[in-house]
Amino acid sequence: MHEFSTAQAIVKSVLERAKERNARRLLEVEVEIGGLTLLNPEQVEFWIKLGLERTIGNNARLAVRTIEPQISCKVCGYEGEIKVEGDLLLHVPFYSLCCPECSSGEIVVKKGRECCVKRIKVSC
Ligand SMILES: [Zn+2]
Q1: CA-CA distance, 97 to 56, in Å (whole number)?
Q2: CATH number of the domain at 3-123, out of 3.30.2320.80, 3.40.50.150, 1.20.140.10, 3.40.605.10?
């Protein structure tokens, strides 16, 4: 799973940003994870929490949000969410990458592939 390395990258990035602002404490971290990344938000949150231990971000409030995938179709012009087919055994949601209206595969993914730090809050 990529959750661990993703969380490591996020921890590194928020600590760097906090340092740039000469922060003494990191209070809040908001992270957005696109549904198409197939990352488990709970696991990412767990690893971030662990990564921030013994740093200025110890006990920081974490908010990890999932962004629902959105596409636009080049063929029929459909724009919106995409069909989710969950695999109940694996607990992994996966997405059929085709238009729910016309079944075309000619689609553009608008949202859902991102994995980014949306906001941090620090105290100096
Ligand atoms: Zn379409």
Answers
A1: 41
A2: 3.30.2320.80
